[in-house]
From TrEMBL:
The keyword 4Fe-4S applies. GO terms for molecular function: 4 iron, 4 sulfur cluster binding; metal ion binding. InterPro entries: 4Fe4S_Fe-S-bd (IPR017896), 4Fe4S_Fe_S_CS (IPR017900), PSI_iron-sulfur_center (IPR050157), YfhL-like (IPR047927). Residues 1-29, 30-65 form the 4Fe-4S ferredoxin-type domain. Pfam families: Fer4. GO terms for cellular component: cytoplasm. Keywords: 4Fe-4S, Iron, Iron-sulfur, Metal-binding. It comes from the Bacteria. This is YfhL family 4Fe-4S dicluster ferredoxin.
Length: 82
């Protein structure tokens, strides 16, 4: 399952550097966005989602539209990192 950023985002930028997959970027409005195609919930790199750990606004949550197994997330990570 990918993660999604909701409206409490303050655009503090803290999460961007923590992402091992460069999945987080500034959106069109104030909110930052996570590219579900690149988010592996940090599977492959860390034990838990780093963006959630560092976000001071606690505005990063699971995206129910992107249900993926551990194996699928690992395969995505392997694909992204060649
Ligand atoms: Fe990036 Fe990990 Fe957050 Fe997904 S969970 S956006 S891979 S830091
Ligand atoms: Fe927004 Fe949280 Fe990322 Fe800061 S760390 S930009 S509040 S999602």
């Amino acid at each position: 399952m990918a993660l999604i950023i909701h409206e409490d985002c303050t655009a503090c930028d803290v999460c961007v550097l923590e992402c091992p997959n460069d999945a987080i970027s500034e959106g069109d409005g104030i909110l930052y966005v996570i590219d579900a195609e690149n988010c592996t919930e940090c599977v492959g790199a860390h034990d838990e989602p780093q963006c959630q750990l560092v976000c001071p606004a606690e505005c990063i949550v699971s995206d129910p539209n992107y249900q993926e197994s551990q194996e699928q997330l690992q395969a995505k990570y392997d694909r992204l990192h060649g």
